[in-house]
Amino acid sequence: MFRHTALRYAVLVLLASAALFQAFTAEYFGLEILTEILILAMLVLALDIVAGFGGMVSLCHGALMGMGAYAYAILSTTAGIAPPVAMAGAVALTGAIAWAIGAICSRSHGIYFIMATLAFGQMAYSYVFEAPIFGGDDGLGGISRLDLSFVGIDLNDSRSFALFCLASLGAIYGASVLILRSGLGRSLTGVMHNEQRMRALGLTVWRVKADVFGLSGMIAGLAGVLAAQHIMYISPGLLSWTVSGEALVVVILGGLGTLVGPLVGAAAFVVLKHELSAVTTYWHLVVGALLIAVVMSRANGIFGWIEARWGARIDRRLTDATRKPEAKEVLGDA
Amino acid sequence: MLETRNLDKSFGAVHVTRNVSLKLERGERRVILGPNGAGKTTLFNQLVGELTPDSGSVHLAGEDVTALPVAKRARRGLSRSYQKNTLFDGLTVEENLGLAAAVHTGNATQLWSDSLAKPEVREIVDEVAEQVNLMPYIHAKVSEISYGVRRQLEVGVALATRPLVLLMDEPTSGVGPEMSKGFHDLLNNLPRDLTMLIIEHDMGLAFDVADTITVLNYGEVVFDGLPEAARGSKLLKDIYLGSWEDA
Ligand SMILES: Nc1ncnc2c1ncn2[C@@H]1O[C@H](COP(=O)(O)OP(=O)(O)OP(=O)(O)O)[C@@H](O)[C@H]1O
Ligand SMILES: [Mg+2]
Q1: B106 and B151 share a domain?
Q2: pLDDT tens digits for chain B (247 residues)?
Q3: Do B175 and B219 sit in the same domain of this protein?
């Protein structure tokens, strides 16, 4: 189950302030980077829900995001459906597909789960690549953004679009916390800790996994819709398994099962990518080395490491000193 | 309430359950005795559906549940605790009980509300915590409570599904004699209409709670009757003294 700590709140406030500052002060290039971060952040939130809180390490979330993007593009462009309806349709469709994938993969665990999701992702990739309606290698262009002119917002403006993505991410973060704190979220935690026991208590385990995977898929789908609107052009590369792999790297670098960590990871990853690729074409080596260092240190990502090292101290300083201390000693008679 | 008919199970050449037929009436408290490896846990696994018997059937409240999966049997009122603690380690005592109570009350898959905040879940959590003496540790994490208290929680989690039939696999295994005694008092205080099947290693303690006794040896029922009869049984003494006096 997800808990907010003082440290997590503090980091959230910090991230939100930095994003707002960037959104209001940055020029075009800075806004593009910010939007890229916000969309990646949404994708890694989706992944952290299933991987960090349900033990379902998915290698198809990139493909789910791609499905959301393509569904939106086809619905809004080819089918000519109004953008808000197309958005809802794309999110619902991605969620339904993700639910089915989750249901089918729910019996497998560990490496087998990873491989099964990878296979689904690759199937989606090659289908999109081959089927004529998706434009093959050339992709699809001319995708329009949501029209918010009735409230005086022009999303074709980079700044407005970045703010729109930030607001969406905020809403999705809130929804993620609610999901994890719901009865379903609690059961998910129970399943991750001990699937056999949850079954013995009468829980239909596959349903819980499928439901959560479906919800996570909806979030990934929304990230895809935003990505399509952002670039206004999409290609099959969006569904490539390397996108899923990158998202997983970000979740692990940030801190699996912390929600806040992956947000930090997304920001760090995109900034690092742009800063380093300006200096060297071998920037992947640096990210790789960083990932190895994090994994070898056995810390739960960068944010997890900060939490483990300073979390207690920072929490104490940030929270009211009158709060009663937590029981630390072993309770009960031996 | 719970019945098995000619249950049979082999692992390869090892015949672990031999033609076992048991019958528990509603509210009956039956203790299963037997030496290590007699097939007690394997029998439990078949009762709850974690293992499929080679032949024979399991009946719960008059219904043949042999073909039902674990979760469905559980929802029909069959609950078990494990010989080895099977708890949710990172969670608190309250959350452990809450997970079970949420499943029972249909809150375990709710998206719109926190199961642990539901009054019907809270009611079960509080009642069970009271029943198995967990109130002092209710907000402690599993990692913060002692082994003995964890054994209580192990049974508590099973109880929090409000079962018709409660199966307990050596609830006092690994805890000292004093605490075992307390544990048996606790079992005696559970509602009289709860049907209980308890695997117990210690014969003396078994007599504290048992209405009836079944003795398993090499997968076979070698005794089925009242505790008084068991106490005098020569057969039982042989098995008992032979292998598990010092356990
Ligand atoms: N999955 C399995 N595969 C093969 N053999 C098994 C399996 N499970 C149990 N056995 C064997 O079945 C026999 C009965 O085991 P079981 O665990 O039911 O005994 P028990 O009566 O519960 O013993 P204890 O008092 O030690 O808990 C043992 O010989 C055990 O090795
Ligand atoms: Mg056993």
Answers
A1: yes
A2: 999 999 999 898 888 999 999 999 999 999 998 888 889 999 999 999 999 999 999 999 989 999 999 999 999 999 999 999 999 988 999 999 999 999 999 999 999 888 888 999 999 999 999 999 999 999 999 999 999 899 999 999 999 999 999 999 999 888 887 888 888 888 888 999 999 999 987 777 778 888 999 988 888 888 888 888 777 777 777 776 554 444 4
A3: yes
Q: ipTM more than 0.85?
A: yes
Of the three residues B162, B189, B213, the one that is the final residue of a domain is B162
- Is B97 found in the same domain as B67? no
In chain B, which residue's Cα lies nearest the Cα of A176? B111
Residues in chain B: 247
Residue of A187, A190, A331 lying closest to B140 (CB–CB) = A331
- Ligand 1 atom nearest to B35, measured from its CA: 25
- The answer to whether the CB of A132 falls within 8 A of the CB of A1 is no
Q: Output the DSSP codes for A210-264.
A: HHHHHHHHHHHHHHHHHHHHHHS-B-GGGGSHHHHHHHHHHHHHH-TT-SHHHHH
Total number of domains in chain B: 2
Which chain B positions have a beta carbon within 8 Å of A199's beta carbon?
A: 70-71, 74
User: Would you put residue A73 in left (φ > 0), alpha (ψ -120 to 50) or beta?
Assistant: alpha
Last residue of a domain, one of B135, B162, B189: B162
Structural domain of B129: 86-162
A207·B109 Cβ contact <8 A = yes
Chain B residue closest to A211 (CA)?
Answer: B109
